[in-house]
Amino acid sequence: MGQTKAEVLQGTLDLMVLKILDAMGAMHGYGIARRIEQVSEDVLHLNEGTVYASLLRLQQKSWISAEWGTSENKRKAKFYRITRSGHKQLCREAVEWERISGVVGRILSLAPGR
């Protein structure tokens, strides 16, 4: 049986995009998608439409900004950067993620019959 690609929940993808921009600095959408795939060790596969929808949501919330620039291959591309309010949101969401993932971990470690 081949390895399946995991589905990513909308809020989780937004959190990952914010973290990638926080860690890497300004990037274009294609680069963000590929970096998430690299870090996931190819467990996640993101189509560009999904990433661009996340980027649009984050931009509408003013958690990221965008400006046109030139990519590594000399093409015009929109580069995204995390804003100050985006960084604050990232910190809040990271704390919440740790809290919720801890709960899920405790539930999954329950012994049968408990």
In brief:
The chain has 114 residues and is an alpha+beta fold. Helix content is 56%, strand content 14%.
Overview of the structural elements:
It is built from four helices and three strands, in the order αβααββα. The chain has helices at 10-24, 29-39, 48-60, 84-108; strands spanning 27-28, 64-70, 76-82. The chain has a three-stranded antiparallel beta sheet. A hairpin with a 5-residue loop joins strand 2 and strand 3. It is elongated, with a radius of gyration of 16 Å. It starts with 9 loop residues before the first helix and ends in a 6-residue tail after the last helix. The mean pLDDT is 90.
Biggest pleated-sheet summary? 3 strands, antiparallel
Stretches with pLDDT under 50, minimum 5 residues:
none
Order of helices and strands: HEHHEEH
Structure classification? alpha+beta
Widest beta sheet: strand line-up: 1-3-2
Oligomer: single chain
Mean pLDDT: 90
Strand elements, count:
3
Distance between the termini: 32 Å
Number of helices: 4
Provide the gyration radius in Å. Answer: 16 Å
State the helical fraction. Answer: 55-70%
Shape designation:
elongated
Strand content: 5-15%
